[in-house]
């Protein structure tokens, strides 16, 4: 798999340092609260595991699965709710854990869904923020790294279900997907 990577952007040590930094900030920002952490499957599972261990608060954890890429390298602009959250979100402070914020459409979909169900607040902690790809006006509250407009894989991010198990985030060679 390493041969399919053009460039490693963030190694495991850098990712752990980002999880430490965000975990500490989240602990401070949510002091005295019991937020509901909502991990977006499948991509955010590794990031969620790292960040949640750095949060020194009582938290609830749920998973939600949406789909917008449908196996390609760019968003289809059609968001589908695949697996819904099991908890009642009414009155809750929600922290969405996301692998990457790209177009922002998936995040907007989730935020609108949770607020329409009565969530008190919705914030986002993302491993990667690809601001160049935005199609909607939305931002992440906690960002591990800004990333340029390249197709990245690893550390939970995939291409056709592959590369999630790479211990780093890297740019996938264009020859793999073109």
From TrEMBL:
Instruction: Please provide, alphabetically and separated by semicolons, the GO molecular function terms listed in this UniProt record.
Output: glycosyltransferase activity
Q: Might you give the EC number(s) for this enzyme?
A: 2.4.2.8
TM ranges: none
The highest taxon in the source lineage is Bacteria
Magnesium among keywords: yes
Q: Where is the Phosphoribosyltransferase domain?
A: 11-160
Q: Which reaction does it catalyse?
A: GMP + diphosphate = guanine + 5-phospho-alpha-D-ribose 1-diphosphate; IMP + diphosphate = hypoxanthine + 5-phospho-alpha-D-ribose 1-diphosphate
* Pfam families in UniProt: Pribosyltran (PF00156)
Tell me the cofactors it needs: Mg(2+)
InterPro entries with a match to the protein in the record? HGPRT (IPR050408), Hxn_phspho_trans (IPR005904), PRTase-like (IPR029057), PRTase_dom (IPR000836)
Task: Report the top EC class in one word.
Answer: transferase
The pathway it acts in is:
Purine metabolism; GMP biosynthesis via salvage pathway; GMP from guanine: step 1/1; Purine metabolism; IMP biosynthesis via salvage pathway; IMP from hypoxanthine: step 1/1
Question: Which of UniProt's keywords are assigned here?
Answer: Cytoplasm, Glycosyltransferase, Magnesium, Metal-binding, Nucleotide-binding, Purine salvage, Transferase
Localization: Cytoplasm
| Stated family | Belongs to the purine/pyrimidine phosphoribosyltransferase family.
Outline what the protein does: Purine salvage pathway enzyme that catalyzes the transfer of the ribosyl-5-phosphate group from 5-phospho-alpha-D-ribose 1-diphosphate (PRPP) to the N9 position of the 6-oxopurines hypoxanthine and guanine to form the corresponding ribonucleotides IMP (inosine 5'-monophosphate) and GMP (guanosine 5'-monophosphate), with the release of PPi.
Task: Please report the name of this protein according to its UniProt entry.
Answer: Hypoxanthine phosphoribosyltransferase
This chain's source organism reads: Fructobacillus parabroussonetiae
What is the taxonomic lineage of the source species? Bacteria, Bacillati, Bacillota, Bacilli, Lactobacillales
Please state the gene responsible for encoding this protein.
hpt
